[in-house]
């Protein structure tokens, strides 16, 4: 499967939006806290699977 040029552009735009949201969401948190948050959210998602 391949992306069209338009699809690639849309994916690049979406990636930027997600990265910006992630930066805003974790602003002011220590790296260790962000890592722990990711671990906890992963565990929550696994519990729902």
From TrEMBL:
UniProt cross-references to InterPro entries, sorted A to Z: WH-like_DNA-bd_sf, WH_DNA-bd_sf
Protein name, UniProt field: Uncharacterized protein
Species of origin: Saccharopolyspora antimicrobica
Phylogenetic placement of the source organism: Bacteria, Bacillati, Actinomycetota, Actinomycetes, Pseudonocardiales
